Structures are given as structure tokens and as C-alpha cells.
Amino acid sequence: MRVNFTVNGRPQEADDVWEGESLLYVLRERLGLPGSKNACEQGECGSCTVRLDGVPVCSCLVAAGQVEGREVVTVEGLADYAKERACGHRSPEGQDSQTGEGTELAPIQQAFIDAGAVQCGFCTPGLLVAADEMLERNPNPSDADIREALSGNLCRCTGYEKIMDAVRLAAARQGEAV
Amino acid sequence: MSTPNGTPTKLTQGAPTKGGIGESTLRPDGTLKVTGEFAYSSDMWHEDMLWGQILRSTVAHAEIVSIDTSEALALPGVYAVMTYDDLPTEVKNYGLEIQDTPVLAHGKVRHHGEPVAIVAADHPETARRAAAKIKVEYRELPVITDEASATAPDAILVHENRDDHHIGHVPHPNIVHRQPIVRGDARRAAERADFVVKGEYTFGMQDQAFLGPESGLAVPDEDGGVHLYIATQWLHSDLRQIAPVLGLPERKVRMTLSGVGGAFGGREDLSMQIHACLLALRTGKPVKIVYNRFESFFGHVHRHPAKLYYEHGATRDGKLTHVKCRIVLDGGAYASASPAVVGNASSLSIGPYVVDDVDIEAIALYTNNPPCGAMRGFGAVQACFAYEAQMDKLADAVGMDRVEFRQLNAMEQGTIMPTGQPVDSPAPVAELLRRVKAMPLPPERQWESSQGSDVRQLPGGLSNTTHGEGVVRGVGYAVGIKNVGFSEGFDDYSTAKVRMEVIGGEPVATVHTAMAEVGQGGVTVHAQIARTELGVAQVTIHPADTQVGSAGSTSASRQTYVTGGAVKNSCELVREKVLEIGRRKFGSYHPAWATAELLLEGGKVVTDGGEVLADLAEVLEGESVEVEAEWRHRPTEAFDLRTGQGFGHVQYSFAAHRAVVEVDTELGLVKVIELACAQDVGKALNPLSVVGQIQGGTIQGLGVAVMEEIIVDPVTAKVRNPSFTDYLIPTILDTPTIPVDVLELADDHAPYGLRGIGEAPTLSSTPAVLAAIRNATGLELNRTPVRPEHLTGT
Amino acid sequence: MDFLRPASWEEALAAKAEHPTAVPIAGGTDVMVEINFDHRRPEYLLDLNRVGELTDWEVGEDSVRLGASVPYTHIMEHLRGELPGLALASHTVASPQIRNRGGVGGNLGTASPAGDAHPALLAAGAEVEVESVRGSRRIPIDEFYTGVKRNALAADELIRAVHVKKADGPQQYSKVGTRNAMVIAVCAFGLALHPETRTVRTGIGSAAPTPVRAKAAEEFLNAALEEGGFWDNGKIITPSVAKQFADLCAASCNPIDDVRGTASYRRHAVGIMARRTLTWTWESYRGTAATTEGAA
Asked: Where is the FAD-binding PCMH-type domain (chain C) (predicted)?
């Protein structure tokens, strides 16, 4: 089947999609956007987290056919997404965010690097999408709020302490910027 | 063929500061990893690539009566189906130390999930459907599942006709390796003991559960060879095992390290490497294989489950008299790293304590359970769980404070190990314990707030099981000892190629090694070493591949020590050559070129007095310097097969933990409130990364304390929970704060005085959590992980 | 496999009538796992995401009509007052990402004994609105679960909504898992006080082949509360009454040993949860009653 939808502000079309394919597979193998990761394919790790019409979901559990006509934001588009949010508008054309090259990092991305929250990095894309959305809803989260919001994202390398540091850092920087 | 998408690129990183060792410089691959651009092995993509699929055995132990692939081959979109009969050469087995593992099952399967056939097709679903159409007829055999069934007089042999180098000294062919260690006279020493405690302990099967499943892309080359893009821990070890099975010389098997989504020991053994190469060579097309999580649980070895039998004795004044212990590790169906795990478990079995009279035995079994091998801590983890439980019991028997009892018996520099090897660098065991004990305790009842109970801070968490009812706090301590580097006489070396040249008017160093960056931050440290040694700001890290010599394994806490040592060594050789060029070009202008100690700093050649002699850009103008050199740490020797004596280890690493837990004693649910750690790291080359490693290792230890276990059916030997739904690893709501106190006491034998750090924190965290739970509940708890039914007696 | 994409409820019913084997998919949190892990290859997938009304809810006089696909996140955020037990249960579902996609219709359709919503629905009292081209009917929740992963739906029927009684008293929900988040229930317990009818209802998950009510325990407690005049005098429930209620709840379980827990632990834990949730709800009831009295 054919599926048309918007990814990171750009219209996309995937052809010859097998009906059992997930959104994750289509992004990774058909659209050249492998940033969302395939760690469990059963909704138990959060590595494939994307925003579907603004809402964080596990893209491994969304059937490709279900995204027809909908909007998806992946880690590759996170920097633009955050920038547009900061500017208060969405750029009309949508930018080429396929590679992330030349784009500034979103504050949460920079905070993950600065705080040492990235080791192997496989969980990082999903955590970034989830953490960015949480800070959008809750700019001053308590530690328990951060833990609850990120409880669907497994990380095996860091023990999560530096991820906590990163989210606190991004929240603090966000607070300073306002 | 053309280069696939996802081929790794060089990482070039400047530094706003000096960016040398000791600074918390940031990862050179950090930006790529946060933007989603960093290509992991599962992200590799090639035009016209096929998808590989493995058919695995549905039973644990059986003869294969027949395999019929005809229906699978007939399916449209299928390019190849291969079984044992299709293997191209006489070499059909592989293995890290013992080549006992069939590439595809031959006549017999020995564990649940063993590869039987492989398929290549144009879509993963086609490949799955084709694999499902392969008909395999099994005739089931009785399963060997534990020591009793393995060593029974009439036991079926898991491997007939063993000819490996351990068979001569094991008491039964279903025992892979046995290592006794006898020192002093434990029997006579026991007579001096005023208190003796005995215990039997069980350690469950833990999985590495790295997040990036096994995957890779094999691309056939024009010369009949193959190029494999792969996530592994040791490229050259893979190569050594892959090439013979393909019937190719090693130079025709090119390997490039793709992005690695964590490893923790689980990528030491081969998984899909040979299968992908076989299918690529058979079809002439690139073949990608990506395990899903279900398959990943079958696709790599696990941490050895163990039974541990201990006897400890002490005098009335609290001095240890003797230790007798027996450690039985279940190696599963294939040897993997079992022999080396046995060596570690036995030689580190009494922990970081002074005991002159010991009687130790460790064995690994062959069974029909899933194969077990390397995982962070490697044999030392299981032992630490048991000996630390024993130390608490014995302290209680003597009537001493548990920490003070440990400190009284703690080893220090100069202590003789049970193997007879002296500990010849700092061993601050008592000090580490003092430090964790001195940290302030977290406040009580943190769940209470003006709005009532915050369940997120209580046992059970979001599941709303308690608002404080039944909750009791407990505190526990543990300390551990881990060896660093490959031991027992292994020729453990690394190779580094370092190049220095001027690019765009600036001196740039390029570091090329085959080191597997699995997340640990080796690439960060290599850039730091190059900056320190060569005085440059810009460092380029070349992708790891087999175009350069071996860097050994990213295992055993060894990479910063050994490949870091190799980078340092090659940088020093480059520096000498650069200075030679300088002397040749400018020596006549300034006598200091000949007489002073010269350094490279800030992009310049300077004297040790700080006088600038030349810009590196001038020295290197029109020239480049490149050195590839091997570097090895001091040699070790094998343990004697009867007495276990020998200079077996390179270096030791120590960490101590204090765990604070809150247990819902009625429901048996645990919330770990804090896991404080103190560790000696020798020298923190990158303090941020060091703390990250300690925290990560600590939480893997927490996982196996309270939730992580692969459950194998004792009757069928089948794995019952191969998924992230039922194999649980800690979430961010299960993890506590982890304050870390880093001690830096230099080891003079090691580069920069550093100490390998990655594994030690995984050892002591589990027993500290168990001790805290015992403290809260008063229960004995002789197994890990501890489950709610153990805490409630149900 | 075919992917059916009805744009309306009527189209969905027509598609289900034409292809009774079609597997409905909404949040995908059950169906996609089975597809990804090659456990299931349905002939047809029937996507319900385009049927917008399934994510709507209406708060009526006595009950809430909850569209089958209202995500758990919305139940937590918007229906905490009307459906406190279900809101608490929703909060225990998997992860935030799953709660953003999954809804009660999926729990009911899968009818796993471990589904988190069931004990809350049983305790609150609910009816499942199902429909086919043949017509619509409402199945009382007590008659809905018919076996392990089986429910009372006919092959051509789809779940449209669930009508849950609005809370007329305190409700609680507890679930035991071996992890503090993102965990499947080892067992779960829901309890609702219904002061209007002076009854107590319960729901137990993962401790029997289907979700069940502890009816003997309910009857015992109803009688004990009535006898002691507790609904009126608002006294603390005596420990012996709470204990017997807990024991009867545990006794109403028919659990198995599996990788998530032992049968005896499940029985034990249900008893503990029964006692605790009774204490919490009753304390809350007493607090409310006291406030009401004080105000009057």
C-alpha cells in the first residue's frame, strides 16, 4: 500500500508498504530516517519515540497505514521543532531536517551532550523526544516529574543520573532564556 | 559495490580548552548521537540489499532427523536458504577459545534457540515467512540442566569427542574447565576459628540487555571477499573466527565498526556475523541482518548463573582465619568465555580481604541451558554477591560492626592474593568503605508531602501499592575486587596508528585504532591523550576497522589502559619523529633543540623551561608523520592447574557501595533510595565519563539484585521470558540517586597511573542492595535477584 | 495482509461484517507487538484511528460514556473526578507513550486477565457498548469476560464505548509489578465504595483466568458495614473486618505460577491490596462524611 504523511514538516510518500510494517520501519528503511531506534519493537523501551500529531508515541506500535495524512516529528527534526516553538511559529515550507546538518541543536540535545547523558546513544533519540515534550508541558519539573515522564525510556549505559542532570540543565537554561 | 549508507565517518573535534587528560571533555560523537545521524549497525542500508533471517531450534536438546528447505526456496523473493550442508569449507565451527560452536546446527541442537538455517530475501517479512516454511524434524534428547544431571555417571555428553586443552584436567567431560586454588591449610586454619559461617548462594542468569540489538550489513566485494559493517567488541577476534568459515584469507574479509548500541560483554561472541557474510557471498548481494529483541535474547551469551558454597571462619577478635568455597557456573551449551570466567571466579573468590588459608574450586558446566559467557564483572560478580553476604553473616557472628569487620580484614598494597600474587599497587579497600559510610544518609520518608504520599517515591511506584504502609528502611554495604585486562598469560596488546600533519595551517593529529567504541567513551579519551602528548587542539578519530592492527577487546575494563596506552605510546613515537624533523629544520638556529627536554604544547615545540622553539605548523610544513605500533601491558602467567598459583592478573580495581532501600515488607516490593559509590580510579582521564561508567555499572548491579533474570524452564531448558515485557531492566523510576566519590591513587605500572574502571561498580552494588534488603526485612536471602515471593515467604 | 481504513463508524461496522476475521487496531499497543514478534498474521487489519468519535467521551447524569479509543492519558487528566478508579488504573498502564495511544477498548478487546483497566471497571460498574451491522447492545461488565483472552463479542461486533458509572464514593486501585514503572501486573485490585447503594464492589486482575470480582468478600463487607452502621457512623472499620475482607478477596483468586509471579504470592498480594485499598477508601469516605456533617 501507499502511505502519505508529513515528517519533520516535509510531505513524504512511501510506496509498496507491507501492511504489517510499523511507522518505525517506514521511517528507518523507506524514508532514510534511522534516527528513531529499534530496540524492542514492543513498546517497552521508548527508543523509537516520535511525536505523532504532537503526542509522544512508540513508533514501533503504530501501523504504517495509521499515519496516513498525519504529522510526525522525529529526532532528526527535533532541533527545528524546538526552534519553531521558541519563535512561536512554524516555518511555512518546513526545512530539510533529514540529516540535521547545519541545524542548531535543540536545548535538550545540547544539554544531553553537556551533562554526559550520552554513552552508547541508542536510547538517546527517544529520550530526547520524550524529554523535550515534557519540558514543553512542564517547564519546571520536579525530579519525580522527570522520572515519571521518562519512565517509558530504558537506558542501559548511564544509570540515568546524567540523564536527570541533562533534563535539569535544559530546564534551567530554558528558565534563564525566558 | 558502492559504499552503504551509514558508513562511519571520521570524527574531528577541537577543544576550547587544552582538552587533554584529566578534563571532562565532551564526546566527539555526541552531536551525531543527539541528532540521530550517528549510524548504528542496524541503521546500515544499501541499494538492493537483502534481509537475512535465522531459523532457530524450538527445543533445547535434540537430534536433527531432517531439514526440508524446498518450500522456503520456492517462495517468491527468497534468494538463498542455507543449512550446515551449504557451508563452504571444512571449518564449520567457531568460538572465542574453544571452537565448539557450529555456524549452523549439525545433526544435533544443544540449546533452545540454536541457529539451524538461514534465509536471505528481499523483505524482512518474506525472509520470516520463508524461515517458517523450513521443516525441521527433531528427535528430542534428555536435557542436562544442572551440576547433578551434567556429572551423573550416565549423563549424556553435551559435546562428544572433546579435544580442547581443558579436557585433560576436568573431572567430567560435561565440565568445561576447573580451577582449584589452594594456599596455606584451610582445614587446619579452621581449627583456629572461633566463629564459622556457611552459606549456599544462587545467582540468577542476567542478560546484558544492551539496547541496540545484534545487527550488521555484509557487502560482497569484487575480489570475492566481503566487507562487514558490524557492532562488536573486538573486530580482530571476529575476523579470526569468521574468515576460516568463509574459506577466505583474512585480508579478504574487511571489517568496519558500525555504531554499537551498548555491549557489556554480550558482543564478545559472534552472533549474525558469519550468517550475513555467508548469505552475501552466496547471493552476491548486500545482506542486512537485524535481530529483534526476542531473537537477541537467543543471539548472545548471558552472565553465568551460579551456585556458590562458602565457609568463612574468624577469630574472636574478628580476624578471618580461612575461606573454603566452591563455585559452580553454568556455562550452557557452548564454551564461549567460560574458562576465563572460571579463572576470574576462583582467583577473586574471597574478595578484597586478607586470608592466608584458602581452599577454592570453581568449575563451569556444559549443559543444555543457554550459553553463558562474558558480562561486565565476568565471574567476579557472582563471587562478590556470595562473599559479601558471608562477611555480613560473619561480622554478626563475631559481634562486630559490618563495615569495621571488613576494614579490619581489608587487603592493602602488598597483600598476597590466594594465587600467591602480591597486590603491587594501591588497594584502598578500607578507605573506600570509610568514604561511602561517611556520606550523609538520605532523609527518611521522602514520599511525604503536603499533598499526601507521592507514590513515585515509594516501593511499587506508579502502581499505587502503598502510601507508606509496611515500608521499612534498610542500609547495606559491600566492596569488591575486579581484575583489569586479560589475565592468565594472554598476550593482551593494542595497536594504535597516529598521524600528525598540517591541515589548513593547523596541526592535526589523527588517531586510528580498531578499538570498539561501545559507548564507554574511548574515542573521547583517545582525543584527550593525543592532545596531551602532541600539544594539538584538533584531533581526528578515524573509524575503527581492520585496516589497522588489533586493539583487543572492549572488555575487562581494559580499553583506556591498553588501547589508551597504545595511543599514548604511538603519540610519543610520533612526537620523537616530529622533534627529529624540527631538529633537522631548525636545530641550527637554537641550541635548545639539541640540549633541552622538548615538549609539544599549544601547537608549539617548547622547552621544559617554557621557551617556544617553533610552531608545529612550521615544523610539519610539507611533512607528515605516521606511526603504527603495538603496545602491551606487563605479562601475566597462567594459574597452576592444581594449586591455582601464578602471577595471573595485570591490575586490580576496587569499588565500594552503600545501599539505602525501602522495602514494602508486606508486598515484598523494593525501592532503592540511594546507591552511594566510592571507587579508586588511579587517574580520572575524563572525570565526567568516569562517573558515568560508575553510575551505569552500579545500576546493572541493582537490576540483578531486584528484577533481572532469564528464566529457563528446568524441565525443558527453554527460555521462558525472552522479551522486555518479562525480562525487566531498571527504569528511571527504579533508579536512585548515585553519589560517587572518586579516589585517584596512581598505579605506577599503568599509563598515567590509571586504573580500569568499568566493571568494579557492577560487583559491589548487588550485594550492597541485598544487604540493605536483609537489613530491612531480617530475612536471609541467599539468592539474587530477590523477588516479591522471596520477601513475603509465598 | 490487507489494511482496511474505514473513515467512519458505519464503514468500520460494514468492514467488520464483510471480514469477521479482521483484527481491529486502534492504539496498536497489543496488535503491533504480535505482528512485530511474528505471533500473529491476521488476514485483515481494521484501523479505527480515523473514526474520530472513538476518542470522545461524554459525562452524563449517572455514567460516563467513554469512547473505546480515549487514550489513558486523557482519562488520567480529564476524568479523575468522575472515574477515579479508572484514572488510577490508567496511570499504571505501561509508559507515557503507551498511555498516549492505548485505550480501554483495546484492553476489553484483548481481554487479557492482566489488562489494567478491568479491575477498575468491575469495581465501578460498567457496560460495554458493542455494535455490528445487526445492531447495538450493551454487555454488563460482569458478563463480558468469558475466558482467558476471550470476551463476549460476536465475530462481527466492534467495541464502540464503555459506559462507566460515575463515582458516588471513593475508589482505589493498586497493582503489583516487580518494577516501579512500565510493568505488567503480577496482580491488581480495584475497589469502589458506593455510598448511594451502600455497597462495595471489587475487581481483581491477573489472579484468575479472567478478571473477576471478589463477590463473597463484597457480600461479607456489605453485611458487616450494614450491621455495624458504618455507613452512618463513619467509624473506622475494625481490623478483624478488614482482615476477613482481605482473606475473602485472596480466596476468590484462582491464580497460576508463571514467570511474573507465583500463585501463592498473587493470592497473598491481593489480600494486602484489598486491605490497603479498603483502608484508603474508607478513610476518604469518613473524611468526606465528616466534612459533610460539619457543613450541615
From this structure: 1-169
What cell numbers appear for C279 in the block? 483502608
CB contact under 8 A, C183 and B463: yes
Mutate to test the interface with C, among B295, B720, B789, B790 (most CBs of C within 10 A): B789
Is the domain covering B44-141+211-262+267-299 a CATH 3.90.1170.50 domain?
A: yes
Inter-chain contacts counted by CB atoms under 8 A, chains A and B: 189
B522 touches chain A (CB under 8 A): no
CATH code that applies to domain B436-481+651-792: 3.30.365.10
Chain A positions in Cβ-Cβ contact with residue B37 (cut-off 8 Å): 35, 76, 99-101
- Interface check for C24 against chain A (CB to CB < 8 A): the answer is no
- Residues from chain B that touch C183, judged by Cβ atoms under 8 A, are 463, 728
Please write the tens of the pLDDT for every residue from B326-365. 999 999 999 999 999 999 999 999 999 999 999 999 999 9
Among A88, A102, A115, A101, smallest CA distance to A173 is for: A115
Question: pLDDT by residue (tens digit) across C57-83?
Answer: 999 999 999 999 999 999 999 999 999
ipTM exceeding cut-off 0.95 for this assembly: yes
Considering only CB atoms, which chain B residues are within 8 Å of A76? Answer: 35-37
Indicate the fold that domain B147-206+302-381 takes in CATH. Aldehyde Oxidoreductase; domain 4 (3.30.365)
Q: Output the pLDDT for position A95.
A: 41
Indicate left, alpha or beta for B575 from its phi (over 0: left) and psi (-120 to 50: alpha). alpha
Residue C95: which of A19, A46, A68 has the nearest Cβ? A46
Query: Per-residue pLDDT for chain A (178 aa), expressed as one digit of tens each?
Result: 999 999 999 999 999 999 999 999 999 999 999 999 999 999 999 999 999 999 999 999 999 999 999 999 999 999 999 999 998 765 544 444 333 344 589 999 999 999 999 999 999 999 999 999 999 999 999 999 999 999 999 999 999 999 999 999 999 999 887 6
For the record, the C-alpha cell of B294 comes out as 526476542
Which helix (H) or strand (E) is C173 found in, with range? strand C171-176
Q: Does B757 touch chain A (CB under 8 A)?
A: no
Domain A103-177 has CATH 3.20.20.140: no
Tell whether C183 is within 8 A of chain A (Cβ). no
Q: What is the DSSP string of C196-261?
A: TTTEEEEEEESSSSS-B--HHHHHHHHHHHHHTTHHHH-PPPPHHHHHHHHHHHHHT-----BTTB
pTM of the predicted structure, to 2 decimals? 0.97
Asked if the Cβ–Cβ distance from C28 to A61 is below 8 Å, we say: yes
Residue C289 has a pLDDT of: 66
* B631-648 pLDDT, tens digit each: 999 999 999 999 999 999
The residue of chain A nearest to residue B290, with distances taken between CA atoms, is A38
Count other C-beta atoms under 10 Å from residue C23's C-beta: 19
pLDDT for B305: 98
| CATH assignment of B493-632, among 3.90.1150.10, 3.30.365.10, 3.40.1060.10, 3.40.50.300 | 3.30.365.10
Return the residue of C nearest to B787 by Cα: C178
B positions 224-263 inside 8 Å of A (CB): 259-263
Helix H, strand E, coil C: the string for B15-55 is CCCCCCCCCCCCCCCHHHHHHCCCCEHHHCECCCCEEEEEE
Percent of all residues in chain B with a pLDDT value above 70, rounded to a whole number: 100
Residue whose C-alpha is closest to residue C179's, from B511, B17, A151, B392: A151
Which residue, B291, B294, B296, B288, is CA-closest to B122? B288
Q: At what angle do helices B687-706 and A161-177 cross, to 10 degrees?
A: 120
Residues of C in contact with B459 (CB under 8 A): 180
| Closest Cα in chain B to A127 | B34
